[in-house]
Amino acid sequence: MSNLKEPLMKDQFIERKVLSPAPSNSKKLFTPFAICFFLFIYYLVAERNPSCTCSTPWTEKQITGNREYKKYLVYTEHCKIPYFEPIEDQFKNNSGHSRSFDCSEHRRLTVVTYNKKSNRHILRVREELIPHYIGMNGSISCCYQSITRGNSRKQPDDAIAISHCLAIRESTVLGQYDEFVRVTCKDNRNNEVYSDVHTVIPVRIDLQERLEYWRKMKLKRTPNILLIGISGISRMNFHRTMPKTWKYIVENLWFTLDGYNKVDYDTFANLMAILTGYNSQSANKMCNPRIVGKLDHCPFIWQDYQKVGYVTAYAEDDTFGSTFNYKKKGFNGPPTDFYMRPAVLARFHYVKRRGKCLGYKHRAEYVLDYLINFVKTFRNDPLFGLFWTNSFANNKFRDAEEIDEQFVDHFNQLEHLGVMNKSIIVFMGDYGIMVNATRYFQFSHLEERLPMIHVWLPKWFRSEYPEFVRGLMINQGRLTSPYDLHVTLEHILLTSGRTIHSPDGSLDSPSSQSLFHPIPINRTCNDIGIEDHWCACSSASSVNEASPDVQVVTQKVIGQINEMIKSFSNDTQLCEELHLKQVLDARKTILHSNKRIKSKAEYEIQFRTSPGDAVFECVAQYNPITNWFAIKGPIGRVNFDEDSSRCVDDYLMKLYCFCK
């Protein structure tokens, strides 16, 4: 029962709204009525989801709340994450309006269908649509080309090869190894009137043999694992900009992890924590993405699933900015059984682009369609897939509205296909908005650090593992991280009975654990490898930006930035030396108190530098008596502008360099 949590103890209580005191003359009548009403609601919800293992109903005190704890997402001994309304006055006044989009000027002239009997795909021209492209009196001829990975040694993940164009005769059976095809149509004057790229999921012979081996073993039922992601969307911005999808999540009783805290700055680091259990430093050392072939030898979790009979897939909707290709070399070979990147490269090269539209659809919709084709083709086999979108929510407040209905539509398609009762689905983000006017709002600290995440468990899985349901319910209000999700994926693999190897856990977060077991109530960010800078559990209070200690700390941080710039390159003439322009925000936490001396304190500061108006933020500790100073974690860049750092290639240096 995903919308109920474990009965809460006093030190766990989370209250989403501050309730007004009842009038004194009705208090005696109201209390028993309220108890009966909430017990009735509890009964209805429990009936809707019989797999719930809640032990006892909530008490009156837990229902009405202790007003000492006002609004919190997480309220535990060492972690308190406040709750903010997703729609604030500041947001309404500054967010602007989203742009509507319509990619379908014409319907697609060609379509690919799947023949179950022959296990082959059929490419067909929709003759009824030809007049839309050439008028009533013209003629048209179409051909298709097979697209495969290229043979570039330096950039193997950025190269494609394309075959000769073969004529399409009404309908054409595609080859058994054709995954991506480009279709071109010309009129009787030889003018190109149509260009499109189709993706298919062919049932290859080698894959059939592998699956047949595992089918013969007649193992117990095991769930699909489908990870569906949106880069750059926080839990708050998801509620604001995708209300239809949020409504679908709530009405269908998904689990929501309100205390899910990102572990690093960008998509690569946060996804690597999920897929490998590595932090950013280990990922760059063990799987150096800037060297060709290194990522191929990285221990991705999808490899473990593939070894035990799962069919694997990975798709993203961007080329330049994709997770493993932005300032990186990507993969030397396909990392999964099905890998959509060649189709994305071909679309960007051959298909008309217009805003977020790529040909006849929104870029993100191609990823969702790839997911649907994947589960349709292998509906009777276990699947592991990562389907990631980069093209719309990343650092843009309202753009997610453009694709809200499409996500609901594709979730409904999964339901119609029966996939929901076969799959564990994680619908998630990697971080919140980092570059926007929202950075200067009160809740900006949480906006970036708390990505949205929702988990779906199929009914049979809930019934078979009620203790997992209970653990996940409890963890909705606990501090969790991508490392926990990695351990959970290992845990699911172990319960499948297809492997006898114990999970390795997370190398860089040994205390992380499966989300199916209750997270310790005394957990801290340090326990699970989240640096202070990224931690959303904060007890800091505001302090005057002009105070001497804040100014000293900020100057010391800027000094560290200038030292980093010098250490990156012997040629220090490329970048300007940075100077403090303005402290934008400062918060302080007392670490050690002593009546005789000033306290050692931790500062969360956000400041602007010149030249370039770069905005940075960091966490630093400072003792004004001893002048002791230390930066805790990285110095984050808020308003990254690649144009101002084009004189350097190093990704990290780009965050700090303002070119001369």
From TrEMBL:
Pfam families: DUF229
Any one annotated GO CC term: extracellular space
InterPro entries in UniProt: Alkaline_phosphatase_core_sf (IPR017850), DUF229 (IPR004245)
PANTHER family: DUF229 DOMAIN CONTAINING PROTEIN-RELATED, FI08016P-RELATED
Record-given protein name: Uncharacterized protein
Biological source species: Hermetia illucens
Taxonomic lineage: Eukaryota, Metazoa, Ecdysozoa, Arthropoda, Hexapoda
